[in-house]
Amino acid sequence: MAASGGPLSGVTVVDLSRILAGPYCTMMMAELGARVIKVETPNSGDDARHYGPFINGKSAYFQSVNRGKESIALNLKDEGDKAILDKLLEKADVIVENFRPGTMEKLGFGWERLHEKFPKLIYVSASGFGHSGPDMYRPAYDMVVQGMGGIMSITGHEGAPPTRIGTSIGDIGSGLYAAIGAMSALVHRGATGEATKVDISMFDCQLALLENAIMRYFVSGTAPGPLGARHPSITPFEAFHTEDGYIIIAAGNDGLFHKMADALGRPGWKTDDRYLTNDLRSQHQEYLKVEIEAVLGTNTTAHWGKIMDDAGVPNGPINNVGQAAEHPQAAARNMIVDVDDPVTGAMKVVGNPIKLTAFEDPNSRVPAPNLDQDRERILKELGL
Amino acid sequence: MAASGGPLSGVTVVDLSRILAGPYCTMMMAELGARVIKVETPNSGDDARHYGPFINGKSAYFQSVNRGKESIALNLKDEGDKAILDKLLEKADVIVENFRPGTMEKLGFGWERLHEKFPKLIYVSASGFGHSGPDMYRPAYDMVVQGMGGIMSITGHEGAPPTRIGTSIGDIGSGLYAAIGAMSALVHRGATGEATKVDISMFDCQLALLENAIMRYFVSGTAPGPLGARHPSITPFEAFHTEDGYIIIAAGNDGLFHKMADALGRPGWKTDDRYLTNDLRSQHQEYLKVEIEAVLGTNTTAHWGKIMDDAGVPNGPINNVGQAAEHPQAAARNMIVDVDDPVTGAMKVVGNPIKLTAFEDPNSRVPAPNLDQDRERILKELGL
């Protein structure tokens, strides 16, 4: 039977992080059952509390990534408050921060001191460029690393203005790698008792996400350009014009290509010398696209979707965010969950994509905390 | 002192996955010290072995995500080979697969049977739409979920053709959540002895990556559109035209906005009623952009980059993949590593963005295996 809580039940995270990269990491940990205690600056708190949209003065941006966490405001330049943080860390398993390198050392909470004082404490840092290298002190936000890290250069259309990835992949990407780092460190600590520091650079994470494009750059010696709406090395694998819009068809191997050719009434493609292998199809991608669109242009996206479905060829429409979020599959998978916040009223946010047989997947979440709302209870727990 | 291996040393992963989502998950696990044994179909192996570019006939695509793994070819419709897989699973910690739902059950390796037979074995599945819901049997590749999951609808420019994210975020995103799921399950097993199934849907993961956009959709009731090269709710936070190209400036809070205004010689913006808060700046984003570009258009990206650096305002150029991969910070962080493959010769691939104090971060990797290359050694280990 599925249990409440999650695989990280019993793990306590002290979270000094702000805005998105660190908070996304700790949100994932909270979703998996960890207790996350946000330590925020007094008065203003996490910067994200001031990012719109707002509902009754409370940031919905903040709500989305901080549901299920606790909050205590501490002035880390005040000796009394520093002592409270020490007490918190004494009982914690993981500390997460996304300050600029050197800030934690200045505050007296650098890895060296913490590791000596709390040898079981795992330290996770997510910074713009990491804790080493010539650019380590360079400040960064999502868009800076999206630009510097190369992903914008391969996203969009040849000759068109630059295109940002519509989601904050600079922050969320590093939040995901930070979560992997934190959990791998928990596994290691479980096996050996040793804690480690996890040093995540948003810039590094952009490179890691590029994976295939970096390989292609080093193989060819040429930086790949933007490819519009197609895959760089699999064909056909792109958005095609239909009579009333677009359909994505992804025929990723010979078998699927043959099914597609038959379903479109063009069995001759299967034996066409230009289309015999994926490599040949990729070399003749533009020509094949014209041939495919000549067929698809005669009917609607829905029509061709049904035909591709029946043929077993991976395909789909281009949904907007509303169509995606309201998709029956999203509902069936509990991917949209409720937050019943006393300030904002009922809100919907995205759920947890990690579905575990051993645990329940609840359809509601505890609201994001107001600044400092858990102070009294936390201090009492610490015996203060 | 940093040790060799990694936090997952001692963890054995049996990897039935193909192409990218599953292999990316197991690549991360291999990078973190796990032993990953690829189980491939005889003769053709993983589909990705046939994706270009090729060097001396070996796929560089395959190399990039399968370095450091082992390979054994097993025909999972053959009783003898099934018995070998059972033997492998007996000693494994994690099994990863990205077949369509139902395939593993048909082969006799579904979660129910495996959990009964190997109660400590963690089962990680990454499929297009997950193991439940009306669309569970729908086939998917990266582009299908990029389209259906909504990210393409917010990436690009108003009125322009659809834009694919330049990297395979449908696959890599789900690979990252799968890795988080696998490691959280290892933490849970370490604490309780219980193994769980991790059910990852590529479509769910796209929704999870949208996070902020989904929240905005439910707050406003309107699906957000593509925003070109700017952030939806932080201003100024976008790519601006300079005399010779673009610069990204991300002034994510009032203090940074004030620094930027001073550095651009426009201190009046700090007290301008339209620009007093991030929310007001976001309401007047188009107007502010014109004002900023009027200044930036008078000089080069490099010139303004230096001025923003000196002022401490997060900024950067838009690098192509080569500029990103050859960046001094990438070298300093060991983000480009060597694979010395006897077939392809020396190749460069992207390194591991998870830097751990407790472990070495080697600058080379073991090549991706040839199909079935580790058969004899693996069979010997199993006593077969």
Automatic annotation (TrEMBL), chains A, B:
SUPFAM superfamilies found in the cross-reference section: CoA-transferase family III (CaiB/BaiF)
State a single Gene Ontology molecular function: CoA-transferase activity
Keyword rRNA-binding, does the record have it?
Answer: no
Q: Which Pfam families does the entry link to?
A: CoA_transf_3 (PF02515)
Q: Which InterPro entries match?
A: CoA-transferase_III_domain, CoA-Trfase_fam_III, CoA-Trfase_III_dom3_sf, CoA-Trfase_III_dom_1_sf
Keywords per UniProt: Transferase
Concerning PANTHER family, the annotation shows: SUCCINATE--HYDROXYMETHYLGLUTARATE COA-TRANSFERASE
Name of protein: CoA transferase
Q: Which organism is it from?
A: Nisaea acidiphila
